[in-house]
Amino acid sequence: MSSTDTVFSASDLHTPDYRVLRLTPGARVTYHGSVHANHGEWTVHPCSCRWCTRDVRRGIPATRYELRTLEGRATGPYHVRHTSVTPVIGDEEPNQADMRVSTKATASYLRRQLLAIFPGVKFSVRCGRDRKRGHITVTWGGGPSKTAVRTITAPLLAHYGTPERVRPRAITVTAGGRTYSGTPNAAAIHLCRSPHA
């Protein structure tokens, strides 16, 4: 059976599959939703209510958040829409706006993340060429689902902050004896999973 190819690009940032993935667990946000008593700063996590948990078990990406205190206590609202929270920009983030990490270094960072999170699974992470220069292709057999891998790849395309400062979260990676820090450069990430290892 041949592997199927899933392309995930910056144009997909507002699809339901992406909404919960655009903010990494523990990211600081300001809540401005319908529960006025809870307005303020929280940390965001994928929702663990029974409906979201059921969907995730079925392989449907979660689209709602659960809010926790800055210390990580689960005392805040749950089943929160992505439109009810705004990420809090850290003091160091504006300084990283113009620093870019090459697609090759971004692929190296992604490969290390995948190997650390899914030990024992063989991943091939390759950069595109020519017209697909900013593309990264991730191929693997068996092991984690595409949804599980997408939770690792999505932050490399995620947009954070206000419209004036729209960019993925900064990364740091050492490749070829050199350390790179800044915004990952990935126009699209292709996920290609074969059912057999």
From the N-terminal CA to the C-terminal CA, the straight-line distance is: 12 Å
Percent helix: 10-25%
Characterize the largest beta sheet: strand count, sense, and whether it forms a barrel: 5 strands, antiparallel
Mean pLDDT: 78
* Radius of gyration from the alpha-carbon trace, in angstroms: 17 Å
Can you list the strand order of the major beta sheet? 5-4-3-2-6
The dominant shape is globular
Q: How much of the sequence is in beta strands?
A: 25-35%
Q: Flag low-confidence runs.
A: 16-20
Instruction: State the total count of DSSP E strands.
Output: 12
Tally of contiguous helical segments? 4
The secondary structure category is: alpha+beta
Helix-strand topology string? EHEEHEEEEHEEHEEE
Key traits:
single chain, 197 residues, alpha+beta, four-stranded mixed β-sheet
Concise description?
The chain is an alpha+beta fold. 18% of the residues lie in helices and 31% in strands.
Secondary structure elements and pairings:
Elements: E1 4-9, H1 16-19, E2 27-31, E3 40-46, H2 50-57, E4 65-68, E5 78-80, E6 85-87, E7 100-101, H3 103-117, E8 123-127, E9 135-141, H4 146-153, E10 171-175, E11 178-184, E12 188-194
Parallel strand pairs: 7-11, 9-12
Antiparallel strand pairs: 1-12, 2-3, 2-6, 3-4, 4-5, 8-9, 10-11
Overview of the molecule:
This protein has 197 residues and is an alpha+beta fold. The chain has 4 helices and 12 strands, in the order βαββαββββαββαβββ. It has helices spanning 16-19, 50-57, 103-117, 146-153, and strands spanning 4-9, 27-31, 40-46, 65-68, 78-80, 85-87, 100-101, 123-127, 135-141, 171-175, 178-184, 188-194. The protein has a 5-stranded antiparallel β-sheet, with no helix packed on it. The longest helix has 15 residues, at 103-117.
